[in-house]
Amino acid sequence: MRTTWLLLALAACGDDGNHKIADAPQGPQDAMKLVDAPPSGTPVTVTVADAASNTRAYFLNADSTVVKMTTVDANGDAMAVMDAGGYVAIVESEGTPPTSFTVTSWAGVKPGDHLLLHRAGQTVGGIQMTITLPVDTTHGVASYQISSTCGGGTIAQPTAVVTTVTAQAFFNDCTSADVMVTGLDANTRPVVAFYVGDQALADAGTIDYTAKTYVVTPARTYELDNNPDPATPISLNDSYTTAKGPLFDVNGVLTLTGNPATTSMPMPALPAGATDVIAIQESTAVNLRQFAAWGPTAGPYVLDWAAHLLPSFIPATPPTYDVASRTLSWTGTPGGIAADFSGGGLSATRGTTRWSWQAFGPSATSVVLPTLPTDLADLNIAATDTAGVTFIGIVSTPGGWDAARANIQQGPPLPSGASGQIVVGVFTGATPTLHRRPARTW
Question: Could you give the domains of the chain?
Answer without folding.
Answer: 127-216 (2.60.40)
